């Protein structure tokens, strides 16, 4: 049986130790359904349609709270502004250094990844996130 979005969000918040609020639910729903790697400003534009009184600062704070608690992750810092990672499948990123676009590429296509866990020096590997920097096909086309 599919869990209703609000029930799913309650379970996620309970696991993360967060209080459930209407604003957080709407922000989570928008993030969970937005394609790509949305910025807080893009999320704000979507949420504002449903909650006209919400502020951009509230959206930023909520996104940071979601990232800090592991509900979502921050995408590549090479983009130049905060982007939210909504794809929970193992993957890496192709980041265009010209237009700053971020494109997901499945982990197996890059052939990079290793076992999670302890590595020499006591570092605990939790996940792999490789950013491949280059120039996308759109930026390579001559004008």
UniProtKB/TrEMBL annotation:
<dbReference type="InterPro" id="IPR036390">
    <property type="entry name" value="WH_DNA-bd_sf"/>
</dbReference>
<dbReference type="GO" id="GO:0045892">
    <property type="term" value="P:negative regulation of DNA-templated transcription"/>
</dbReference>
<dbReference type="InterPro" id="IPR036388">
    <property type="entry name" value="WH-like_DNA-bd_sf"/>
</dbReference>
<keyword id="KW-0238">DNA-binding</keyword>
<dbReference type="Pfam" id="PF01475">
    <property type="entry name" value="FUR"/>
</dbReference>
<dbReference type="GO" id="GO:1900376">
    <property type="term" value="P:regulation of secondary metabolite biosynthetic process"/>
</dbReference>
<feature type="binding site">
    <location>
        <position position="99"/>
    </location>
    <ligand>
        <name>Zn(2+)</name>
    </ligand>
</feature>
<dbReference type="InterPro" id="IPR002481">
    <property type="entry name" value="FUR"/>
</dbReference>
<protein>
    <submittedName>
        <fullName>Transcription regulator FurR family</fullName>
    </submittedName>
</protein>
<dbReference type="GO" id="GO:0000976">
    <property type="term" value="F:transcription cis-regulatory region binding"/>
</dbReference>
<comment type="similarity">
    <text>Belongs to the Fur family.</text>
</comment>
<keyword id="KW-0805">Transcription regulation</keyword>
<feature type="binding site">
    <location>
        <position position="136"/>
    </location>
    <ligand>
        <name>Zn(2+)</name>
    </ligand>
</feature>
<dbReference type="InterPro" id="IPR043135">
    <property type="entry name" value="Fur_C"/>
</dbReference>
<keyword id="KW-0804">Transcription</keyword>
<feature type="binding site">
    <location>
        <position position="139"/>
    </location>
    <ligand>
        <name>Zn(2+)</name>
    </ligand>
</feature>
<dbReference type="GO" id="GO:0003700">
    <property type="term" value="F:DNA-binding transcription factor activity"/>
</dbReference>
<feature type="binding site">
    <location>
        <position position="96"/>
    </location>
    <ligand>
        <name>Zn(2+)</name>
    </ligand>
</feature>
<dbReference type="GO" id="GO:0008270">
    <property type="term" value="F:zinc ion binding"/>
</dbReference>
<keyword id="KW-0479">Metal-binding</keyword>
<keyword id="KW-0862">Zinc</keyword>
<keyword id="KW-0678">Repressor</keyword>
